[in-house]
Structure to design on (271 residues):
């Protein structure tokens, strides 16, 4: 789904969905059907729109192609400002394979001459929490590498704020991270302590990681993405704390403990 805001009111919006019948209805928003493509229908639907929140497409081998076709349509329609959900450390030579898609998309947005705001989300705290609690472990070749994982709610709130005040964030790249660098060992230790569940970290080799994931039928590019999630952390590409969330929202980013409390997984504690 993409969310588009009108420049006139700052809040009037159009919600674009592949399946409009499944989209949540809001009184202030119009729902239109949309896919990642360059077709006359897509161009017509985007006409008159100034600011576009482009949420990156579902991971697939054709994602960059889909992104470029949609951006071509947006350019033809007269869209001026693209707010794109990218990835922390996006680079065409990044260890995390899917990061390369984001780097290519960012480059194409600039190539087409859009005003832009890139929201580079790090890996999500929510994902790490869910995986650890569901499996009783985190398993992967991350070694003792660090990750400044971010809460999903912070990234969505930043996106909303950018859309409400787009001029302030024109042609900027914002790094959206949590407030701390954590290793996998530190994450499972904190989760174990706070939830009372015994959660472990299994530091696999790369070969072991590919082998253990064979229980899920997938294509090679998917296995590569899953394993490189951890190898990117191991080599340090996902470390580093940014204050960009605080700069946008006016308060610090949510920590792992904050996220557990927000999700009612642990009780609020009074210091």
């Amino acid at each position: 789904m993409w969310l588009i805001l009108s420049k006139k009111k700052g809040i009037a919006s159009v919600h674009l969905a592949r399946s409009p019948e499944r989209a949540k209805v809001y009184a202030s928003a119009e729902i239109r059907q949309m896919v990642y493509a360059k077709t006359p229908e897509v161009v017509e639907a985007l006409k008159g729109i100034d600011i576009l929140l482009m949420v990156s497409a579902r991971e697939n081998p054709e994602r960059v192609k889909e992104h470029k076709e949609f951006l071509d349509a947006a350019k033809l329609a007269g869209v001026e400002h693209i707010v794109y959900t990218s990835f922390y450390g996006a680079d065409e030579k990044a260890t995390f394979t899917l990061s390369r898609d984001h780097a290519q998309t960012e480059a194409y947005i600039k190539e087409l001459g859009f005003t832009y705001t890139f929201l580079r989300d790090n890996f999500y705290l929510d994902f790490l929490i869910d995986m650890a609690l569901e499996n009783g472990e985190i398993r992967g070749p991350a070694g003792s590498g660090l990750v400044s994982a971010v809460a999903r709610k912070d990234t969505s709130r930043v996106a909303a704020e950018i859309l409400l005040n787009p001029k302030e964030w024109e042609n900027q790249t914002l790094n959206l991270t949590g407030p701390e660098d954590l290793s996998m060992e530190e994450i499972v230790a904190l989760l174990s302590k706070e939830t009372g569940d015994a959660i472990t970290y299994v530091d696999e080799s790369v070969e072991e990681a590919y082998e253990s994931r064979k229980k899920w039928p997938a294509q090679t590019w998917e296995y590569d993405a899953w394993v490189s999630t951890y190898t990117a952390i191991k080599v340090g590409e996902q470390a580093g704390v940014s204050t960009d969330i605080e700069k946008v929202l006016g308060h610090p980013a949510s920590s792992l403990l904050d996220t557990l409390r927000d999700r009612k997984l642990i009780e609020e504690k009074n210091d």
Confidence is low (pLDDT under 50) at residues 1-10.
